[in-house]
Specification:
The protein is an alpha+beta fold. 37% of the residues lie in helices and 19% in strands. It has 4 helices and 6 strands; from the N terminus they run αββαβββαβα. The protein has a 4-stranded mixed sheet. The chain has a two-stranded antiparallel ribbon with strand order 1-2. Strand 1 and strand 2 form a beta hairpin. Helix 1 runs antiparallel to helix 4.
């Protein structure tokens, strides 16, 4: 039973992390991470159907400059894309002309915090103490029958 409770808690932590970092959303499902499967018309339709843009800074900096994740919600799908500082500035510039493109900064809980909580769930014991480990004062006095 303890194993099942720990497994359930770990599943909840992983699910929370995926929702927290926008890999999954309630209204759009699993976020797409690229536009490779779309034609030019498909990309233009996606761009014109943007509902909102959110972004957050990644916990660990990357050498290639993609230090942000941008979450774009459209009328059809949701996209979670890597972005640079210049990309964020470009979205802010577009936001001057259209409020749909005004990026909203969000602050998800970092992955390392969720990993630490998951580790604690694995390490911390659950349940009540077993009855054979009672303190000495609550045990029956033992008599020596060999006397």
């Amino acid at each position: 039973m303890k194993f099942f409770i720990k497994l359930l808690l770990l599943g909840l932590i992983v699910t929370f992390a995926l929702f927290n970092h926008k890999y999954i959303s309630f209204d759009k499902g699993i976020s797409k991470t690229d536009f490779e499967d779309k034609s030019v018309i498909g990309v233009l339709t996606t761009v014109t159907g943007v509902k909102s843009v959110q972004y957050y800074k990644k916990t660990f900096a990357r050498e290639d400059g993609y230090n942000y994740k941008v979450y774009i919600v459209t009328t059809g799908d949701a996209y979670l894309l890597d972005a640079t500082d210049d990309d964020i500035k470009a979205f802010k510039t577009l936001g001057i002309f259209s409020s749909k493109f005004q990026p909203e900064k969000i602050s998800p809980i970092p992955f390392y915090v969720e990993v630490i909580v998951g580790f604690l769930v694995l390490v911390i014991p659950f349940g009540k103490k077993s009855s054979h480990n009672r303190p000495a004062e609550h045990q029956q006095p033992q008599t020596d029958s060999a006397q």
